[in-house]
Amino acid sequence: MSSAGVTVLNPVLNEPVLNDGREYDVDGENCRRQYDVGEIVPRKPPDSDFLLEPVILNPEIQLPSMIWDMVNSTFDGLDSGHYPIRSMEGTGGVYFMMDSLGQKYVSVFKPMDEEPMAVNNPQGLPYSLDGEGLKKGTKVGEGAFREVAAYILDHPKGGRYPLSGDEKGFAGVPPTFMVKCLHGGFNHPGDLTVKIGSLQMFMENNGSCEDIGPGAFPVKEVHKISVLDIRLANADRHAGNILLSKAGEDGKPMLIPIDHGYCLPETARQPYSTETIEYIRSLDAEEDIALLKFHGWELPLECARTLRISTMLLKKGVERGLTPFAIGSIMCRETLKKESVIEEIVQEAQDSVLPGTSEATFLDAVYQIMDRYLDEIAGSPLS
To answer: Helices (DSSP H) in the chain: which residue ranges?
Structure first.
C-alpha cells in the first residue's frame, strides 16, 4: 500500500524538511524556503500529479494511528485516480475524499485559500479586503487552524491527549490534522498550487440534527457538545453541523460535532451530570494554550483571552449549579444590538483597569466581576 509522506518544521531554521532527509523541492529546483501558510507556491511532485502530506510543526509530535490511517486512506484514494468531490453546501471549499475503491468517503479537506472570503473561495463570496472573516472576530485563513485546535482541545475524560494516543475526546470531535495537498480537483483559478488546510475524518452518520426533533437527543450527548462550544466560544453551531449517528452505547443516538471554525435545545436546560462536572473541573486554559503552542499555533492575545474567559465562565457556572442553557445564554445576545452578559462583564473589566494594564490584572478583574454577575444569575428563578 502506498503511504503519504510527512513534512516537519525545522525548529531552528523554521523551514520545512521531508522525513527522508532530502531538501524541499519547489518547481524542480532544490531550494530551501521558509514555511508560510499565507504564501502557497505553485509546485508539482516529480513523479505524480498529486501530493498529500501531514504538516507537522513540531518534530516531537507523534501522530496517532487514526490520523495516519486517515491520511493514508485519503492518499490511496487519490493514488487510485478518485477526484475530490466538492460539496455544494456551505460558504467555503469543502471536499469529500474517497477511499482506494471509490466506494466511500474517508475524509473531508478544507483548504485555507478556499475559506469564506478567501482569495480562491469557490462559492462566490467577496474577497475580504481587511482580512476579517465571515464571522466578526475571526480572520480569513484561520479556519483550518481552528478545526485542528477543536480536535486537540477535545480532551478525553482521562486527561489530555498523549502524543500518540487514540482515545476518543469527550465531545467526540472527529480526528483532524493540518495537511498539504496538491490536486487538480480543487479550485485553482490560476496555476495549480499546493493547498494547505484541515483534513478531518469522515464520520458515518444518519444525517444531521436538522432531520430529527431535539427531544430525541440524549441529554448526555447535548451536554458534551455544550461543554465544547462554551469553552471554545463557538460562534457557528447549528443543527446542520451536528451529525446524528446510531452507533452510540446500546444503539442510542450519538451526536458528532463538526465544523468548528446549534442553538441549545431544551435538553440543555437539565443540569450537568457529575461525570461532566468532573470533566469541566479538570479543564485548564493555560495548559490548553501551551498545548496549542506545542502543536505549532501560538494563539494571538485576543484568542487566548477568549479561551481563558470562556473556560473561566464554564467552570464558575457549573460550580454554581447553572445549566448548559443558562451558561450558554450568558454568551449569546438576545437581540443584535443588545450586548450579551459576557460582553458586559468584559467591558466592565476593561473600564475598571488602567490603560497598559497587564493581561493578568485584566483577567483578575474579569474574575471578580464575573463572580458578582454569576451570583445574581444563580439566585434568579430562570437559572
So the answer is: 65-79, 143-153, 219-232, 274-281, 285-294, 301-319, 324-331, 341-352, 359-378
CA 369/CA 80 separation, integer angstroms: 59
Nearest to 82 by CA among 94, 95, 91: 95
- pTM beyond 0.90, yes or no: no
DSSP 186: S
In eight-state DSSP terms, residue 76 is: H
Can you tell me the distance from the alpha carbon of 330 to that of 312, in angstroms, rounded to the nearest whole number?
13
Report the C-alpha gap between 23 and 25 in whole angstroms.
6
The answer, yes or no, to whether residue 189 has pLDDT greater than 70, is yes
Each domain of the chain, given as residue ranges in start order, spans 7-201, 209-335
* Measured torsion, CA atoms of residues 273, 276, 278, 283, in degrees rounded to the nearest 10: -150
Report the Cα–Cα distance between both ends of the chain, in Å, rounded: 56
Q: Which uninterrupted H or E stretch holds 96?
A: strand 95-98
CA-based radius of gyration for the chain? 22
Tell me the per-residue pLDDT of 304-318, one tens digit each, with 9 for 90 and over.
999 999 999 999 999
Residues with Cβ within 8 Å of residue 283, at least 6 apart in sequence: 155, 231, 311, 314, 315
Grid cell listed for 233? 466560544
Contacts for 270 with CB less than 8 Å, ≥ 6 apart: 219, 223, 323
Sheet holding 195-201, edge to edge: 16-18, 7-9, 51-56, 176-182, 195-201, 105-111, 95-98, 85-86
Q: Look at 147 and 21; give whichever has higher pLDDT.
A: 147
Q: What is the rounded distance in angstroms from the CA atom of residue 10 to the CA atom of residue 13? A: 5
pLDDT confidence of residue 158: 75
User: 72 by DSSP, 3-state: which?
Assistant: helix
Of residues 243 and 340, the one with the higher pLDDT is 340
